[in-house]
Design brief:
mainly alpha; two-stranded antiparallel sheet; 4% strand; binds zinc ion; Palmitoyltrfase_DHHC; EC 2.3.1.225
């Protein structure tokens, strides 16, 4: 029901126009934050000798310099993480179906693929059973699915080949976990949602940057909020009436919104389910999306971040991910074949047994 309501509203055009404005406004506000920190808060903290830390003494000049340097370092470290992750979430492709057909679209003789170079790919040594099963397919390409997979996306029309029967462009396969975004006009692997603030879809390839962006944002709000609290009575602070009002509003608003949003997004990440699949699982008519997350939290973190190390997750990185996105479909396709073979063998061996019909194999489990 939720999905059918969303489908009726054509907001794609509006979001496409608003997107770049939102991106500019995010950079603008971050710039204003830096301007206020360097010109307003930091001089007040230094000149008024406000101490947060148990430094060597109330009149120690070195103590105030040290404190200012530490606060400046924390401020810029948070800012760097916010900027890096925001920019990556904005610029990195979430994993679009066109890209899996890349070689074919360009007419190149190379096999269309998105194989990562072997040396860069994380090993499956630390993965659990279900994830290891998926990782067996990492080197396979969209061609391996094309013959065995019936589902196609009627909205993606990037293939140039003509279908002889219909005289229309051939439709690309729509592997499992791909969802069509009407704003990006393409299918996206593990699509979470289309975010106008990053003017991009969030999918398998860029969700980690978005998660870290929304993780560092409220921490920065809290940190700068604490500094503003100490600076608010100072005469120098009153020299920036307009900017300080905007900053207070932004910091409180973003902190409240992002805190709850973080809980929700990280919960889904730990479960290994993107938002769209969660909504689909609520819609009783659609069962697709249930059961794709791995049973272990660590495996889901590994798929999203490419590492299980809790500290490395929060560091800025370009590390490759263990899965490319086609593995769930390949696993179902091969499991189906295997399941059929097993099924036929069982029938051959015991044709007269009555309980054959009771054999059921769940093909949706990865
Ligand atoms: Zn599509
Ligand atoms: Zn999109």
């Amino acid at each position: 029901m939720i999905l059918s309501l969303l489908k009726d509203v054509d907001i794609s055009q509006g979001v496409n126009v608003i997107g770049p404005i939102f991106v500019l406004s995010v950079y603008g506000l971050l710039g204003l934050n830096v301007y206020m920190f360097c010109n307003c808060y930091l001089p007040i903290l230094y000149n008024n000798k406000i101490s947060y830390l148990p430094l060597s003494g109330p009149d120690s000049h070195i103590a105030w310099i040290t404190q200012s340097m530490i606060l400046t370092f924390i401020f810029f470290a948070l800012l760097f993480n916010i900027l890096f992750n925001y920019t990556m979430a904005w610029l990195i492709s979430p994993g679009k179906l066109q890209e899996y057909y890349k070689g074919r679209i360009k007419g190149s003789k190379e096999n269309p693929n998105l194989e990562c170079k072997k040396k860069n790919r994380p090993t499956n040594a630390i993965a659990n059973k279900a994830l290891k099963a998926c990782m067996r397919h990492t080197k396979k390409t969209i061609d391996k699915i094309d013959g065995d997979w019936e589902i196609r996306c009627a909205k993606c029309t990037f293939l140039d080949d003509m279908d002889e029967e219909t005289g229309m462009n051939k439709l690309p396969v729509k592997p499992l976990r791909f969802h069509h975004c009407s704003i990006c006009r393409g299918c996206v692997i593990n699509m979470d949602h289309h975010c106008p603030w990053v003017n991009n879809c969030l999918g398998l390839k860029n969700l980690r940057y978005f998660l870290l962006f929304i993780f560092y944002l409220p921490i920065s709000n809290l940190f700068v909020g604490m500094i503003i609290w100490h600076c608010r009575g100072d005469p120098h602070y009153r020299n920036y009436p307009m900017c300080s009002q905007i900053m207070i509003g932004i910091h409180i608003g973003v902190f409240l919104a992002m805190s709850f949003f973080n809980l929700w997004q990280w919960y889904l990440c730990l479960k290994g389910i993107p938002q769209i699949e969660y909504l689909q699982s609520l819609d009783m008519e659609i069962n697709e999306g249930k059961g794709f997350g791995f049973p272990g939290i660590c495996d889901n973190i590994y798929v999203t971040f490419g590492t299980k190390n809790i500290f490395k997750i929060f560091l800025p990185s370009f590390r490759p991910l263990p899965l490319e996105g086609l593995e769930w479909t390949l696993e179902v396709v091969t499991t189906k074949k295997k399941a059929m073979e097993v099924h036929e063998r069982v029938i051959d061996m015991s044709e007269e047994r009555d309980d054959i019909q009771n054999i059921e194999i769940d093909l949706t489990q990865p």
